[in-house]
């Protein structure tokens, strides 16, 4: 996402969502998705499901990235088509001649947008050759709207390819992030049972910090919970490894 958005890297977090919410909100209100990852399955099966899901996305990401970097490849296969919506219906009764800017160097594209605010924030960053503040809303129904945008003709392919790739990244970022958080929750459970035994009686915590304070936090956690560490008499190297484990439970 950061690479594709180029000049709008500060807006990456606005597009990097999980289930439609920001990542920290998803983490702090995390609930296991029993429909997607049935708890009746063995732990090894759940881990396999998650890894397979992410591997599939990774494989598709490589394919999508190749298509984006080579804008001459077919873009039709990357677009979702639904009969009767604004992407496929005739726009003759919506677009007027005066809505279009056509000259030797400039042209107008028509874009179907489902999120007006997101479009307004990002359309100028899809190419360096977009005319600033050139987008206008031409039509809107209950699901989407038709917007015009003016840009240099030389940038048309780049604009189309990047728009499609950004949309794909948003959808699949959410899928992969949710899958990995479930995997981390699974690991917290397994490590806690191995460390504290049965019956299951533990509380998983989430501590938010930054990279500068991460090392200090690990040291403090290691010192604070040393009495719970069965390897407390181990070497300093081993203790440091256990500190990472404690912090993993809290920080992951």
TrEMBL record:
GO cellular component, one term: lysosomal membrane
Pfam families: V-ATPase_C
Keyword Metal-binding: no
InterPro entries per UniProt: ATPase_V1-cplx_csu (IPR004907), Vac_ATP_synth_c_sf (IPR036132)
Transmembrane segments: none
Annotated GO MF terms: proton-transporting ATPase activity, rotational mechanism
KW Ion transport (keyword) present: yes
Lineage top rank: taxon: Eukaryota
Family, similarity comment: Belongs to the V-ATPase C subunit family.
Protein name: V-type proton ATPase subunit C
Species name: Lates calcarifer (Barramundi)
Lineage summary: Eukaryota, Metazoa, Chordata, Craniata, Vertebrata
Primary gene name: ATP6V1C2
């Amino acid at each position: 996402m950061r690479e594709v958005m180029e000049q709008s890297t500060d807006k990456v977090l606005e597009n990097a969502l999980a289930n439609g919410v920001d990542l920290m909100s998803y983490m702090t209100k995390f609930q296991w998705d029993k429909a997607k990852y049935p708890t009746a399955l063995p732990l090894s099966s759940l881990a396999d499901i998650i890894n397979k899901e992410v591997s599939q996305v990774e494989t598709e990401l490589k394919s999508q990235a190749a298509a984006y970097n080579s804008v001459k490849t077919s873009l039709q296969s990357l677009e979702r088509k639904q009969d009767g919506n604004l992407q496929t219906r005739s726009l003759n009764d919506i677009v007027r001649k005066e809505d279009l800017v056509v000259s030797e160097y400039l042209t107008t594209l028509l874009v179907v947008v489902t999120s007006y605010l997101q479009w307004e924030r990002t359309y100028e960053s899809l190419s360096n050759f977009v005319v600033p503040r050139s987008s206008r809303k031409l039509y809107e129904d209950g699901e989407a709207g038709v917007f015009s945008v003016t840009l240099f003709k030389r940038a048309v392919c780049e604009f189309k390819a990047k728009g499609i790739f950004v949309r794909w990244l948003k959808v699949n970022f959410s899928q992969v992030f949710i899958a990995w958080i479930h995997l981390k929750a699974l690991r917290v459970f397994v490590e806690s049972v191995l460390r504290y035994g049965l019956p299951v009686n533990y509380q998983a915590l989430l501590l938010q910090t930054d990279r500068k304070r991460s090392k200090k936090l690990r040291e403090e956690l290691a010192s604070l919970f040393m009495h719970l560490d069965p390897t407390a008499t181990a070497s300093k190297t081993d203790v440091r490894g256990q500190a990472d484990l404690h912090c993993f439970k809290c920080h992951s």
